[in-house]
Amino acid sequence: MRSDIRYLWAKGTAPIEIHGEIQAVYGSNVMTVQHVQKWCREFSGCCLSVTDEQRSGCPSTSADFVLANEAVHGNRRVVLKELEEQFNLSHGTIWDTVHKSLGYRKVCSKWVPRQLTEDHKKKRMGASLTHFLHFNDHGEVF
Predict the structure, then answer these.
(1) Rounded to an integer, what distance in angstroms lies between the CA atom of residue 102 and that of residue 52?
(2) Euclidean distance between CA atoms 103 and 99, whole angstroms
(3) What is the mean pLDDT of residues 116-138?
(4) What confidence tens digit (pLDDT) does each residue in 29-88 have?
(5) pTM score, two decimals?
(6) Which terminus of the chain faces fewer neighbouring Cβ atoms within 10 Å, N or C?
(7) Burial code of 54-80, b = ≥16 C-beta within 10 A, e = fewer?
């Protein structure tokens, strides 16, 4: 889309007309006139590239997830502040990684997985069956 704007601007088309053409092709909720005007100003200032420029910040990578998972799994009592310092990432990034991506939550100051593993489910089912059989054998006394 940015290349479309660059092309139309190079042809001498006014920003409002470019906006109309963009809306005709991509739909009415695609972007505002102000965005088109901003890009036209950038192109006027000899900005010739139509690709996104490098942004600051640390992008999340799968390596971050693996390392964070190993750190949490290795020390279930690790606090987010320690992970922030270890990986040099912001609090929000670490929180999202641990809570949302890896699926851990804090219980009694330990990180535990949100989902039960198949082994956990089998153990729970076995314990439930044992309790059920004891109840059938001994009734209310159990």
Answers:
(1) 30
(2) 5
(3) 88
(4) 777 878 877 877 776 665 555 555 565 555 555 566 778 888 888 888 888 899 888 888
(5) 0.39
(6) C
(7) eeeeeeeeeebeeebbebbeeeeebeb
